[in-house]
Amino acid sequence: MRDGFAVDADRVVVALDVGGTGMKCALVRPDGVAVHTERHPTDAGRGPSAVVATILDVADGLAAKARADGLTPVAAGVAVPGVVDEARGVAVWSANVGFRDVPLRDLVATRLGLPTALGHDVRVGGLAEARLGAGRGTGHVLFVAIGTGIAAAHVVDGVAATGAHGAAGEIGHILVRPDGPRCGCGRPGCLEAVASASAIGRRYAELAGGSPEVTAAGVVERATAGEPLAGQVWREAVEALADGLATGQALFDVATIVLGGGLAQAGDRLLDPLRMALRERLTFHREPRLVVAALGDEAGCLGAALLALDAAGVGDPQEER
Ligand SMILES: [Zn+2]
Question: How far is residue 6's CA from residue 14's CA, in Å, rounded to a whole number?
Answer without folding.
Answer: 19
